[in-house]
Amino acid sequence: MAITAGTFESLELRDVGRSFGGHQALAGLDLTVRAGEFIALLGPSGCGKSTALNCLAGLLPLTHGQILLDGRRVDTVPSEKRGFGMVFQSYALFPHLTVEKNVAFGLQMRGLPRAEVSRRVAEAIGLVKLEDHAKKLPGQLSGGQQQRVAIARAVVLEPSLVLMDEPLSNLDAKLRLDMRTEIRRLHQELGLTTIYVTHDQEEALSLADRLVVLREGRVQQIGTPDDLYDHPRNWHVADFMGYRNILAGGLMDGGDGGDGGATVRVGGLTLRGRPVGEVGEGDDVRVAVRPDDLTVLAGGREPRDGNAVEGVVAVVEYHGREFAVVVQTADGATLHVRTPTAPAVGDVVRLTAAADRVLVFPAELSAASAAADRAEAVTAA
Amino acid sequence: MTAVADRPARSTASLRHRLAERGVDSSLWLMVPALVFALALFVYPFSYGIGLTFQPSVATQEQWGGGILANYVAFFRDPFVFDSIWITMRLALPAALFNVLASIPVAMVLRRRFRFKRFMTSVLVLPITLGTVLTAQGLLIFAGRQGWLNRFLIATGLVDQPVQLVNNYTGVMFSLIITGFPFAFLLVSSYLSGIDPSLDSAARTLGAGWWQRFRRITLPLLAPGLATTFILTFVLAFSVFPSARLVGDAMGSTRVMSLMAFRAFGEQNDYAMASTIALMMGVVELIVVAVVLAWRSLLYKGSTGGKG
């Protein structure tokens, strides 16, 4: 394989921030990316993930902080001299140039000899399996093919860093899965250091080595997929990691970390759970439970850890191996649960969950957790 | 059934239905008003004009010969008439070219977001609302021998004699730019806004400097629009009449074709010759338009949006 990744040791983002007028779109982003890593920036729209990517690409100047590549500042280097590859959400293929010429564009800008340009273009097109379409214009290709051209155009330059801005969001569901595998394959084959922006947690979890969860321009948590999946730092991260059941409640007891258990009052119910973060008695809390951690109690079985919730089945969806069921409790809360067998709509069911799978978070999304994250990220580097 | 299977099945639909499928239905009546106007106001007068050109006056026939083609012989043989083509070209081509070329950087700058953008755009487009006569009047007052500009230049001692800016080629050129630029600017801006800005970003991340981005991405995508803009401003400038007369040198350097046609019509009462000149004006414009369109057909004209 002649196309390889540009080599470097580490890319460091120090306190990177960007404001638009008075609005802080991104603040205090600290992150160290090691060569070959696949990082996903994850968050809802408007969380600053695309801003972060554009800052890295040099398309937006920073208003705060520094970006260092092996200790050299790159945030002052103009975009065209940074040598990072970027894949855009809209693909941004040059519509008047053929696939070949699109891929060749960057190489020509570097003034490489003609023979080398055509050799590397052919190789990159082969890499994304578009040999039969090399002479076509982008308008004659399907969405997935266009996205592959965009990827080939970025990797042909052997960039030290590839930036991807929601590259799959314009594709249909099946194609998205295929392209996801394709991106992962390219990353593994070429060892490309990749920063990938998405709002899709599944995409982020399946692709990335590490995830950065953002909210309102601030880092919420940085960690490996399983770390974030099992140990979200606050309820916002939990929400993003598939904890669909998030209920507001009040802490009755615990949270000091003694036996690790906490008792929470949610509506008319009392639940046992595991406190995460600083919670004290009487505090407002959010209780988060993943749908697959909730189970429907068969008649007569004891609830786990005394956690029992009664409700009426409102919606049943077939999901292949299991059913996604929506249960409405007496005090109006909506719970999502997965079951192997389908209950009938209108049935009264009892749900239970193990106490250590019921996460209890402070209701406030303080900056403290973000700051703690930052400290951890720096030491991890 | 099998017996008729190899014959194309005859439609069982009614005649009216079959006609409707080919686009013939009662909604065609809506075309009548437009058709009447087109026939009465364009086709008939135009044909009548062409007919006139083949009915030269006795004087023309005697002077130039050529029978019914005497007007055309006169047009090509009489340097006083024929040279007006070059005089008009000398005004219209540079004016149109300037308007289009100057619009590009202005439109590109005004595409960015900055304060007073709306104000700047309004100022640039405002002259579109001024008629050519008003523009000419303004030019005479501002740039005439006794105009503010000359008085200012003399008062500050920059010049001794008033600078001749109107009643010559320069005056007409100014007028053509003042009235033609807003058109060109508006058109180029709208063509430019049709180009996905992420293409520029993509080219940047691929290492292209601003000139390469302009040369390799923006310009090729803009070129068909530039050709169209050029044609429109050229046609506008080619038919220049009021300013050529008011701020130009009507019998000298700005003796444009429309003035010649008017002279034949108004002063010599030679309708046939006037029609010939008018027709030749159209022919010259068509030649230029055809050349530009031929060049345009070589360019990429597809989508300039994101997903292609």
From TrEMBL, chain A:
SUPFAM superfamilies referenced in this protein's UniProt entry, alphabetically: MOP-like, P-loop containing nucleoside triphosphate hydrolases
Protein species of origin: Krasilnikoviella flava
This protein's GO CC annotations: ATP-binding cassette (ABC) transporter complex
Keyword set, alphabetical order: ATP-binding, Nucleotide-binding, Transport
Protein's name in the database: Putative spermidine/putrescine transport system ATP-binding protein
Pfam family, one: TOBE_2
Superkingdom classification of source: Bacteria
SMART domains to which the protein is assigned, alphabetical: AAA (SM00382)
Gene3D superfamilies: 2.40.50.100, Nucleic acid-binding proteins (2.40.50.140), P-loop containing nucleotide triphosphate hydrolases (3.40.50.300)
Domain ABC transporter: 11-241
Molecular-function GO terms, alphabetical: ABC-type transporter activity; ATP binding; ATP hydrolysis activity
TrEMBL record, chain B:
Residue ranges annotated for the ABC transmembrane type-1 domain, each copy included: 85-292
GO CC entries: plasma membrane
CDD domains: TM_PBP2 (cd06261)
Keyword Repeat listed: no
GO biological process: one example: transmembrane transport
Keyword NADP set for record: no
Keywords tagged on the record: Cell membrane, Membrane, Transmembrane, Transmembrane helix, Transport
Bilayer-crossing regions: 28-47, 85-110, 122-143, 172-192, 221-241, 271-295
Top-rank lineage group of the source organism: Bacteria
Membrane topology term: Multi-pass membrane protein
Pfam families: BPD_transp_1 (PF00528)
Main location: membrane
Protein's cellular compartments: Cell membrane
PROSITE patterns to which the protein is assigned, alphabetical: ABC_TM1
Stated family: Belongs to the binding-protein-dependent transport system permease family. CysTW subfamily.
Protein name: Putative spermidine/putrescine transport system permease protein
